[in-house]
Write the structure tokens for this entry.
Amino acid sequence: MRLVVENVSKSFGDKKVLESVSLTLEEGEIVCILGASGVGKSTLFHIISGLLMPDEGRVLLDGEDVTGKPGKISYMLQKDMMLPYKTVLDNVALPLIIKKTSGEGKIWPWRRIRTAREKAAAYFEEFGLSGYEKKYPAQLSGGMRQRAALLRTYLFSQEVALLDEPFSALDTITKGKMHQWYLSIMEEIHMSTLFITHDMDEAIILSDRIYILGGTPAVIQDEITVSGKKPGAEEFKISPEFLEYKKRILEYIQ
Amino acid sequence: MRLVVENVSKSFGDKKVLESVSLTLEEGEIVCILGASGVGKSTLFHIISGLLMPDEGRVLLDGEDVTGKPGKISYMLQKDMMLPYKTVLDNVALPLIIKKTSGEGKIWPWRRIRTAREKAAAYFEEFGLSGYEKKYPAQLSGGMRQRAALLRTYLFSQEVALLDEPFSALDTITKGKMHQWYLSIMEEIHMSTLFITHDMDEAIILSDRIYILGGTPAVIQDEITVSGKKPGAEEFKISPEFLEYKKRILEYIQ
Amino acid sequence: MKRKLQSITNALIPASAVILLLIIWQVLCLAGVLPGYMLPSPWQVVQAFVKDFPLMAGHMWTTLFEAFAGLGIGIVMGFVVAFLMQRFHALYRAFYPILVITQTIPTLAIAPLLVLWLGYNTAPKITLVVIMTFFPITVGLLDGFKEADPDAVRLLQAMGASKTQIFFHIMLPSGLGHFFAGLRMSVSYAVVGAVVAEWLGGFSGLGVYMTRVKKSYAYDRMFAVIFLITAISILLMKLVDIVQYFVMPWKRDDRSKTKMEEYK
Amino acid sequence: MKRKLQSITNALIPASAVILLLIIWQVLCLAGVLPGYMLPSPWQVVQAFVKDFPLMAGHMWTTLFEAFAGLGIGIVMGFVVAFLMQRFHALYRAFYPILVITQTIPTLAIAPLLVLWLGYNTAPKITLVVIMTFFPITVGLLDGFKEADPDAVRLLQAMGASKTQIFFHIMLPSGLGHFFAGLRMSVSYAVVGAVVAEWLGGFSGLGVYMTRVKKSYAYDRMFAVIFLITAISILLMKLVDIVQYFVMPWKRDDRSKTKMEEYK
Amino acid sequence: GNTATERNSDATAEKSTKNSKKITMVLDWTPNTNHTGIYVAQEKGYFKEAGLDVSVIQPPDNGATDLVASGGAEFGIDFQDTLAAAFSSDSPLPVTAVAAILQHNTSGLISLKKKGIDSPGKLEGHSYATWDSPIEQAVLKNVVEKDGGDFSRVKLISTYVEDIVAALHADIESVWIYYGWDGVKCDMEGLSTNFLPFADMNPTFDYYSPVIIGNNDYMKKNPDTTKAFLSAVKKGYEYAAGNPSDAADILLKAVPELDEKLVQKSQEYLSKQYIADAAQWGEIDANRWNGFYQWLNENKLVDNALDENAGFTMDYLK
Ligand SMILES: Nc1ncnc2c1ncn2[C@@H]1O[C@H](COP(=O)(O)OP(=O)(O)OP(=O)(O)O)[C@@H](O)[C@H]1O
Ligand SMILES: Nc1ncnc2c1ncn2[C@@H]1O[C@H](COP(=O)(O)OP(=O)(O)OP(=O)(O)O)[C@@H](O)[C@H]1O
Ligand SMILES: [Mg+2]
Ligand SMILES: [Mg+2]
């Protein structure tokens, strides 16, 4: 699937936040939006996910206009947003429970719930969560919560996902481990991903392309293609190529 | 002033958190304690500040045993810990209001409060906070709150300060700016500082020496002296020396 | 082991404080400082309690029936009304301020009117209990819904969930904490409400018992029944805690509360 | 401008809902469905209110005096007791459970005893109001103190602050939110408590007025006085909000609450 | 109902034939010795014999008349003085007094002997607990002034006295009580008191209290049932008049919450008052009834003047 954002602008009251933002996400790509705090990154994602109407512009998914229509694109919010009153399994299975299915699921909701749980449980091993199905989110470490949120996002739609600062709540060391895990899991599941970060290192390590969002109102200031990477995150991080990319980004961000 | 921590051990219930930790902080030095989340860094600071009694070992300040005696060392807690119901000025002046002074301050507390406010206000310019005296913490940005907390810590004691992850709540870009600001302010105020971080880059940029805390129970795994630096934080960050230090630290932290 | 011991001493301290107060009271009565017609001694109250317990037990079931029936109706109505008001914003805006105002009406003042309108059976008593419990439960639930994390709502919206699904997956569980706090208040209101309604007339019930013993100057029995009512309230509140324990399993170990212990 | 308009329509919707109810009630009365001796029509109530207002106003001052005196004493006692219990942990452990239990005692049941013990002046009324308000305020404050951020306490401890300083700089401001919530409840309790105590005897006061009009089967005046009591409760609660606005300036713009608006 | 009799009546209601008529009797307040005859009729089966299924309920404070008027109960108990307000209001309550429970007004002023209030005029300068009825205060004014006292110097305290003994120990110096209950209690407590009956102070005040009232509509439609009910009640009171101790036991069995000694003592006193000097139990003398209401009319104590013979009838009492 191909996601296209065309000339999106948005104001809150008198305050213009986004000014004619355009971007594309090709099938299977990992693209990052890099910008300082408060610049309007989450607002952009709210618009792409259909939660918020833009003042101008539109969002196209494989050519279909999905502006203001939620439920089409998988969205992982900025906070890990595990519902504290549901077990990890129920949290992860939530998109499958919510989904409007035809057939008997409509009449017997508990059947739908059981099927959803079974489907979700099958992925726990792969996402390093096995044994934690019946626990509550508060009993998990930050990294595990993030993995569970990622699994939930994946279960909603295998095609296009928006991740809002997926790793920013983690400490640097856990974050490093998560980066490696993320790169390896992405090799298996091939989900087109648009993600937000304000961490340059993270942007360079994980993405195929980087959009730099900045200014008030925010515009796309640059687009950087990152190529020839992935020799394992930590080594890449101390390679000269990495430093080159970093220098280029630093031009925009002091 | 010279701070010495000798063979400190601490358990919570059956769980041993710190095992015979020793370290020193010389006058005017900036020393960092680097370790993963949950390793026991804050616990160590609680012990040094006198809030918590260690099971074994002691804390010496210029040779005087201050184990379990709070009020001697300035301590900035992990959260910025601005009291939400006090204005920024009152928050910053708090240590001066609290301090037991002899003379008329004892009899007329409002005089002490007025004097404290005046003293604190004098530093607002330098810490980039002027104009925000009468605001409440919720109205400040993350970076400003952190600067205010730092100023409060400085006002409590100009000699030895403990900073628990002073910049970890900030986004990477703001963090970068704060690092530069911090280095420049430290050139003026010369406060001996022991700080905690789990961010390798931060540790290398800011400190004269780094203690690596790791394992369960946590021990000091290595001590690294960082020399020949400070050509401006951002440039240093992309220099080859920086990468050398980073490689060395990465041996301990995967 | 250590914790168990501590929780026993935790219970012992207030218990001994109560016993001390009772002993002082008994001594004052025996010494004649407090005349019998003004205040019976604790010992007299205990005797009256033991002697009259079978009689009080009979009345108690009536009161409990009224309290539970009223509370049950109040809870069901509360849930339905809260659901509708949450679901349809116009209803919320029209009726939420009225709900809040209604709570300030002195319910007891209209109790005599209820008896006049509904007769002397259990109907007016149950109605009074419903009025006294419905409002706190509804307002509690609505306030609880407001606690729902807007990001959780957005998460479900982004998944394309319907408003009803958002209600059941987000609003309801978020409101439960407030609901149980409201319920804990309400069980005690329910019992006291039933008793007060019975003061106004009826065949049986602890309120009827109370007016009768008061009329025949039996203050020892009066205190005994006040004690019984208090005990019932406390037991019911504990019951609510137990129900909450099972309904909200994710709240069971709130470790953060004990974190300060080491530092004290 | 837009906000102002919106807040006006916000008030209009519930107001028109109330007016609609009143019209239905009036029509039912005029149609004779509701007999006059059972329920006066709204118009009769309004007439009674206007006609009797000077008389009611006189009684109102008595009731307000009792309510305020009781509330004032309750607040002062609440603060002192909460301070002592916070300061001395032994007191807390001995009396906190008793405080909580005391709240479940049906206060109204002991009101007649108060009259017997204290006579027929304002003393028993004020005492009842004190009892009804002291406990929620104290428990509210103590629960508020528990809300205090343990890290804030540690911060002050690290600065070498004394327990008293920690109380005034951390505990007290942290407890204020709960205190005002308790106070909002308490002002309404205070008025109703004073009225109920007056039912049991006194020279003047809205409760005395109420018993008199009830005895003379004047239900229109009865409704008028219930209306007045409700209005007083609401006004006092608004007053508490205003006081809170000034005492807790840092709570003034809680922006997070309005953040969802765009999404609805 | 949980008291023994009420349970019985519930049980019989289910078993008895369908044509037994259900009747609700609402008392004036908590059950006491004024009501003994009703409980006797219940216990001894007089109601059942008359084909009636009677349930006795304790009403809201001052609510019995409202209940009877609204049809919530067929019969009830009230007092001639308080009924005046119900009869004279703009929309009079549809109730009528059908029988007097006690022949004479047994109420009076009680005070501790040491206060020296041995005649009504001496109330001057003392406090009195009033329930704020204009009629009550007019009656008091009349007797005080007739005895040469200054009523304006009587300290009126608005209160409903819950406990006469405690009240007299507190700052209340005199209370209007019914001797049959509160007076007996004072005697039991060994208080030396002065008791001044109103009937003695002014014959106009020997009105009827308490009386049985019925719903007008119901009685008009069911005259025979009304008569049957009243004759059963009458039989009950006649038994109570003749067997005070037995009757007290019956009351205590039905209402075990009451204090045994007080009920026995009170019954002893009241048994002589049920019939007293009248030809039969329940008789209402038109002269005495009208005399009091006339006095109310003259003193403008009612909203609308009460007619001759208003509010009572002897038609149903045989
Ligand atoms: N519903 C709203 N109403 C008014 N202003 C809003 C609303 N949502 C966001 N804003 C404002 O828009 C700006 C952009 O917010 P946004 O959350 O998109 O930033 P962000 O780039 O995601 O920042 P962060 O990195 O801190 O998450 C901020 O100034 C914010 O205060
Ligand atoms: N009061 C306490 N009682 C019991 N266990 C505690 C207490 N305080 C801390 N711990 C435990 O001790 C360990 C170390 O905690 P500490 O807060 O010192 O970690 P940290 O290194 O500061 O972590 P972070 O980087 O997340 O702040 C943790 O496992 C924690 O759960
Ligand atoms: Mg964001
Ligand atoms: Mg820490």
Notes: Strands of chain B lie at 3-12, 15-25, 30-34, 56-61, 64-65, 74-76, 160-164, 192-197, 209-214, 219-225. The CA atoms of residues 74 and 154 of chain B lie 7 Å apart. Residues 1-13+50-72 of chain B form one domain. Residues A 41-42, 78, 164 surround magnesium ion (ligand 3) (CB under 6 Å).
